[in-house]
Amino acid sequence: MAIRPAALADANSIIAFVTEGAKAYPELRADHDKVRKLVTEAISSAAHFCWVSVRDGKVQGLLAGLTGENLWAQRRCCSVPIWISNVPGDGVALLREFRNWFKGRRGIKVAGFAPDIEVDARVWQLAERVGFKRHGGAFLLYN
Length: 143
What we know:
Elements (H helix, E strand, L loop, with lengths): L1 E4 L5 H11 L10 H13 L4 E7 L2 E12 L6 E10 L4 H14 L4 E6 L7 H10 L2 E3 L2 E5 L1
Parallel strand pairs: 4-5
Antiparallel strand pairs: 1-2, 2-3, 3-4, 5-7, 6-7
């Protein structure tokens, strides 16, 4: 098992993994060009976060955070559009790496995600133990 920053060489594997995960949204159609562009940007730019969990050479987990301007608050924000893992324990390891990355970026005020699918409630308890605070339906970290 390896939890590590994603590399451009992982892009095709990440795209396949994301596309498979998109099946949880049967009423939406994946835009493969957009996925490729965002994955490449997330991997290539230090402004973003993109780490993977790899087992037997195959991506089994992913956490991507995209940093941008906050609509109304001072400093930037980082939104997590995808956090998924097929391997128990790897998801929390990815979340801890994201937290550590975020805490080192004082120019980003808030980071987090808003769950949009049903997930075992223990996952959200785990996020809170890592340091995320529940705010409405979102889980947020603050710098």
